[in-house]
Amino acid sequence: MAGLNPDSAVPTDIILHRVSATLELAFDDGARFTLPAEYLRVHSPSAEVRGHGAGPGVLQVGKRGVNITAITPVGHYAIKLVFDDGHDSGLYSWDYLHQLGREHAARWADYLDRLAAAGGSRDPA
């Protein structure tokens, strides 16, 4: 199956908390993460966000307050998240979600640094 590493952790629970705009994930390796929708949105695996080549991708601005409106399973290896800003083209594999959870603090700090360097804002225009 594409996107599935046999040694990968697989989610045992995926819970959307709409009020707090977070996605709670529990994996079969014991890992548990609660990831903000804004974090998931700015780190979308879509080409729109990642870009089409090497490098940091397209800096996402104005995503504070974004929420997830739907979660759709994709095979046995990923989910598609639909955000209330209309973004719905990223497929989040189990490996990528686990990585986002493990690297949350570092990735978020890097995003905030990139945003500040570009003079961008988390707040919508």
Automatic annotation (TrEMBL):
Pfam families named in the record: GBBH-like_N (PF06155)
GO terms for MF: metal ion binding
Keywords: Iron, Metal-binding
Protein name as annotated: DUF971 domain-containing protein
Any coiled-coil regions, as ranges: none
Matches recorded under InterPro entries: GBBH-like_N, GBBH-like_N_sf
Keyword Iron (UniProt): yes
Domain called Gamma-butyrobetaine hydroxylase-like N-terminal: residue spans: 15-98
Gene3D superfamilies hit by this protein: 3.30.2020.30
Species, as recorded: Chitiniphilus eburneus
Upper lineage: Bacteria, Pseudomonadati, Pseudomonadota, Betaproteobacteria, Neisseriales
